[in-house]
Amino acid sequence: MNEHLENLKEIRSLMERSSKFLSLSGLSGISAGVCALLGAWYAYAKLHVDGSSLLSIPEVRHEIVPKLVLEAVVVLGFALFFGIFFTVRKTRKQGLSVWNKSSKLLLLNLMIPLCAGGLFCLGMLYHGFFWLCFPATLVFYGVALVSASKYTLHDTFSLGIAEIILGIISLFLAKYNLICWALGFGVLHIIYGTVMYFKYDMAPKKTE
Predict the structure, then answer these.
(1) How far is the C-alpha of 5 from the C-alpha of 99, rounded, in Å?
(2) Where are the transmembrane segments (predicted)?
(3) Sign (positive/negative) of CA torsion 97, 104, 80, 135?
(4) Residues 25-56: pLDDT tens digits?
(5) DSSP string for residues in 52-73
(6) Per residue, what are the HEC states of 162-178?
(7) What are residue 49's phi and psi, to 5 degrees?
């Protein structure tokens, strides 16, 4: 009886591996969270002087917004670099292929909402709605994670829902947009990455 159960588990594991990309590293989430927190700290330092926001000054706003957008691109670049690095390293340790059908579907379902959200935020920046970009990035990122979760670990779905909820909360608490953004992309990523690391990276056999 136990032998049959083991065989069924093995068959299930093989089917899951063929349909899902299971090599996401918890360290990717942690590194992305750290990058986001550093970016949020830098943005806060640039935006606030003596407790007041520089965005309330029209003359300064036109100068500082492009710098913040550039900073966001740099933070994203570092987060992607470390994310790819740790995931590729884990995949190679497992003797698996990084670029396969599952990873392609994962990337496709992730990029469609992210690209749509990026263009949407550029449109809001163009029309001067800077603060709405914070909740928008959280919501679109959450939708992207939910969309991609069916091709990777289910834990990604929970992170996506949390990002969406935090984005909606941020929409109604404009004063705390940067804090919500830091919580979503920073703290939640670190918590998610830590859980993933101890759940899967430290015990890879449990993903089977």
Answers:
(1) 31
(2) 21-44, 64-85, 105-123, 129-149, 156-173, 179-198
(3) negative
(4) 889 999 999 999 999 988 888 776 545 555 55
(5) EEGGGSHHHHHHHHHHHHHHHH
(6) HHHHHHHHHHHCHHHHH
(7) -130, 120
Report how far apart the first and last C-alpha atoms of the chain are (Å, whole number): 20
Question: 186, 172 in Cβ contact below 8 A?
Answer: no
Rounded Cα distance between 78 and 168, Å, is 26
Q: For the residues of 70-132, what is the DSSP string, one character each?
A: HHHHHHHHHHHHHHHHHHHHHHHHTT--SSSHHHHHHHHHHHHHHHHHHHHHHHHHHTT--TT
Distance CA 89, CA 75 (A): 21
pLDDT by residue (tens digit) across 109-167? 999 999 999 999 999 888 888 888 899 999 999 999 999 888 888 889 999 999 999 99
How far is residue 134 from each of residues 5, 108, 121, 140, 164, measured CA to CA in Å? 48, 23, 9, 10, 12
Q: Which residue has the tokens 């392609």?
A: 104
Q: At residue 96, what are phi and psi to the nearest 5 degrees?
A: -110, 170
% of the chain at pLDDT higher than 70: 78
Angle CA 73–68–144, to nearest 5: 45
Q: In which element (H, E) is residue 49 found?
A: strand 48-49
